Amino acid sequence: MRSLTIETPRGPAEVEITDPAGPPVSMLVLGHGAGGGVHAPDLTRVHDVAVAAGVRVALVTQPYRVAGRRAPAPAGQLDEAWTHCVREIADGLPLVVGGRSSGARVACRTAGDLGAAGVLCLAFPLHPPGKPERSRADELPEDLPTLVVNGDCDPFGVPVASGLIEVTVRPGATHDLRKGLPGTGEAVLRWLTGKGWAR
């Protein structure tokens, strides 16, 4: 694993990059949730299965978390710092961007500008708890292959599959996706392999 500090317009971000045993097939860049870190259980599971399947995986810690704050920066600042980091580390491999919760939203909003081949969303927060009328479904990219993995007990809701957006629902899982982690990893691996981004 390589650890980098990248100076962004919003302060320093930290990136951890893990290479697979052989030549990488693609690069997967993952961001964390609003108040959490890049070593959340679902991110760790996806990291491990992807690296084992020939994917170079990068975990990006946003500047506000590096600075020790739990409250997230505004969306525009998150997107700016994320975009800067991804462009800094992109290496010509097919690029898949993603993350959990807030990190999934950032990846969705920036995927087009970054030239990503696909988007992976873990626990995409479709709406604030108890407020289904405030849907964020329009953030999901319509023109890129996108996998959403959500728990069926997630108070933030579950997106609906449409077009290039595939949705895998994890039974009994809440927003943290801790329940059934192996199944979450398998779903992501099937999707990556099916798209030719893993072996």
Write down the CATH topology: Rossmann fold
Total beta strands: 8
Give the strand order, joined by hyphens, for the main sheet: 1-2-4-3-5-6-7-8
Order of helices and strands: EEEHEHHEHEEEH
Q: Categorize the overall geometry.
A: globular
Which bin fits the share of residues in helices?
A: 25-40%
Q: Number of helical segments?
A: 5
Radius of gyration: 15 Å
- Main pleated-sheet profile: 8 strands, mixed
**Class derived from helix and strand content:** alpha/beta
Average pLDDT figure: 97
Top CATH class: Alpha Beta
Which range does the strand content fall in?
Answer: 25-35%
The total tally of domains equals 1
Seen as an oligomer or otherwise, the chain set is single chain
Q: What gap, in angstroms, lies between the N and C termini?
A: 20 Å
In the CATH classification, which architecture applies? 3-Layer(aba) Sandwich
> What is the CATH homologous superfamily assignment?
Alpha/Beta hydrolase fold, catalytic domain
Uncertain stretches:
none
Keywords:
199 residues; Rossmann fold; eight-stranded mixed beta sheet; 5 helices; 8 strands; 29% helix
Tell me what you see in this structure.
This protein is α/β, with parallel strands linked by helices. It has one domain: Rossmann fold, CATH 3.40.50. About 30% of the residues lie in helices and about 25% in strands. The protein has helices at about 40-50, 65, 75-90, 100-115, 180-195; strands spanning about 1-10, 10-20, 25-30, 55-60, 95-100, 120, 145-150, 165-170. The protein has an 8-stranded mixed sheet with strand order 1-2-4-3-5-6-7-8, with helices on both faces. A hairpin with a 2-residue loop joins strand 1 (about 1-10) and strand 2. Helix 3 (about 75-90) packs across helix 4. The longest helix has 15 residues, at about 75-90. It is globular. The model has no long low-confidence stretch (mean pLDDT about 95).
